[in-house]
Design brief:
- The chain has 4 helices and 8 strands; from the N terminus they run ββββαβαβαβαβ.
- The strands form 2 sheets. Strands 1-2-3-4-5 form a 5-stranded antiparallel β-sheet, with helices on one face. Strands 6-8-7 form a 3-stranded antiparallel β-sheet, sandwiched between helices.
- It is 23% helix and 34% strand.
- The longest helix has 15 residues.
- The protein is an alpha+beta fold and 153 residues long.
Length: 153
């Protein structure tokens, strides 16, 4: 089956720009088609973080991994880059007809929980990871689940 990736043009929000670095099809490493972006200071090559958009909603993604995953480098935290990056990806999710979007994070990751709230997510619950889940095997035990209803964002 052929999967269609879309070109969304420039993704910029003031001093933040998302630069597409890879369009990855499912493989041994990833379960679903995925866009991988670098967060950069707009108009520069300065990398300030990364964000991935997983373009399907399997049970693992909905419950544990989330459609969007992000990381902001320590020295650039506190500027809402992750929340703003999520918002820049919502039109791409709509184009792929993915709704709702799910983002998960560890319960003790207060910054990521705040990011989900700022970006428009609704806290749904905290779930226990199954013992055979990759994140469990990496040491995580629970995930907070945030739902983003794109019809309302």
């Amino acid at each position: 089956p052929h999967f269609k990736f879309y070109n969304r043009g420039k993704l910029v929000n003031r001093d933040l720009e998302l630069v597409l670095v890879e369009k990855a099809l499912p493989s041994d490493e990833i379960e679903v088609p995925t866009y991988r972006f670098e967060m950069r200071l707009a108009g520069t090559r300065q990398k300030i973080g990364r964000i991935n958009f997983r373009v399907e909603s399997t049970e693992d993604i909905v419950m544990y991994a989330g459609n969007i995953g992000y990381r902001v480098e320590r020295e650039f935290r506190g500027n809402r880059y992750a929340a703003r990056s999520c918002q820049l990806l919502f039109p791409l999710a709509k184009k792929h007809k993915i709704n709702p979007i799910w983002i998960t994070c560890n319960p003790d990751n207060i910054s990521s929980r705040r990011t989900c709230e700022i970006a428009g997510g609704k806290f749904i619950e905290i779930v226990d990871l199954p013992t055979d889940n990759d994140q469990y095997l990496d040491g995580d035990r629970q995930k907070c689940r945030y739902r983003f209803d794109l019809a309302r964002i």
